[in-house]
Amino acid sequence: MKQFQSFGLDTSNQCLLRDGAPIDLAPKPFAVLRYMVENPGRLITHDELLDALWPETYVQPQVLRTYMLELRKVLGDDASQPRFIQTLPKRGYRFVAPVTERAGAHQNAAGPVASSAEIVGREQELSGLQAQILEAASGQRRVVFITGESGIGKTALVDACCRQLDPSLAAQMAHGQCVQGVGATEEYYPVTEALSQLCASPDGDDACAVLSRMAPAWLGNGRRLKAATSPDAPQERMLGDLCAALEELAAEKPLILIFEDLHWADDCTLHLISALARRRAPARLIVLATYCPQDGSIENSLQDLQQDLLRRHLCVELALARLKKAAVSELLSRELGQAVLPPGLADFVYQRSEGNPLFVLAIVEHLIAERILVRRGADGAAHWQQCEPFPEMEGGVPGQLARMIGVVIERLSEDEQRLLEAGSLVTVAFPAWAVAAALEKDLAETEEACDALARRLHFVVRAGQDELPDGSSSAFYVFAHGLYREVLYQRQAVARRARRHVRIAERLGELFAGREADVARERAMHYEAAGDWDRAASVLQAAAAPAPLHAGVC
Question: Which of 99, 204, 230, 287 lies in the 20 to 30 Å Cα band around 251?
Fold first, then answer.
């Protein structure tokens, strides 16, 4: 294993570790990081990286910049003062951190953390996915959408299923990774990546021969793949030729095409999936596509495609829910390598993670880094113990997890970020009127903007309608995960956050004029959060004072 500062690159298990805990990293960014870590201290040009990771394939240099941005966020690196990745303008990159070899995987200063060979809590989904692959192996083509929120384990499910395939199937597999921003500029990007893998596989000569014979527009000189239309090969013809070539490749043995993060795909890639699903010829072909609902740039096209295929019984959806508490406990036991967990650990992690596997791992990593969990004992007798109280539930978000959530938030426009920040000032559930008050915006316009966000984002949902004292109504919304709310709250400047709290408190007073005692505690909470202790105390005192006697009452 390659070690650099607190990070480890486990090439055997294809994962990145920090202080022994795994970090979620897609295959291509991992491959970029691996190449740099294996070539530290020297200039790695753009061309060298592209040739090493995308052999014989044209890839836009913008892809490298996208991956470098993602890696810097994961590593907590600063491009202006790099600790890991140094950018050499117009030339390439250099990995500047010292790299050492270290035996073993999933280790930290306190001792090893067990590596989970398989996922937990997904037995039904895994069985269903395996059944779909067996159906495809019998000649009945299949398209399967694996959906769920970020970090829920979509890629882990696909990987586990592929690892457990019966070797006698002799299945061919090819991955295509969709990348944010690339879909808008390069058609068929994940498709060409998958085809490149097929051409570079042990059966690559056969794959290239089939493409050359049946879909020549997809194969240029040697094995350099392309997807550019020409007068001799219009896009419709290219699409049909590729479908026929893939069916030919899947005639003798199963072909598994895996497209990751389809919410970032281009429309042409979606057209290919649609065509493959609708064609009638028998083929031992299955498309496995992962995506996060209500995330990405072409969500309507993707969801329209899925709904149409579902209606025609041409695809299957496996929607991954959050893990149950028992599954979280099992995951913790596997990660820590011990059957008996420290008392209260499973409850704490389950409440904080709300069953999201990625959040579970990030919280455990944080507890180990803060030495709240410490490994005691030696060799076979070593086990993890709780050495400090678990932090308060509102005690912040682990740094690595906060950065990952921050990446999702930063994809939004400034206006959308402000809406969510204002919502975070209330609780996990927030009303549109409070957002409008905090931002000094029109209520109707604010509610429309919140509705639009709830349709697009996986972590905000519209939860209902509240009747206000003046007879009007206001929609309210819920953060699907409390950690998103915490990140949004903490990222606001203190002074700006205080002003927004005051506006909400004042609007509460206006809405409940004559009934201020009903919302005294809520108003006081906002004044306290703004640091206005005098007004907080005044609101509570007024609510506690006895009501005045009316004239004539004895």
Answer: 230
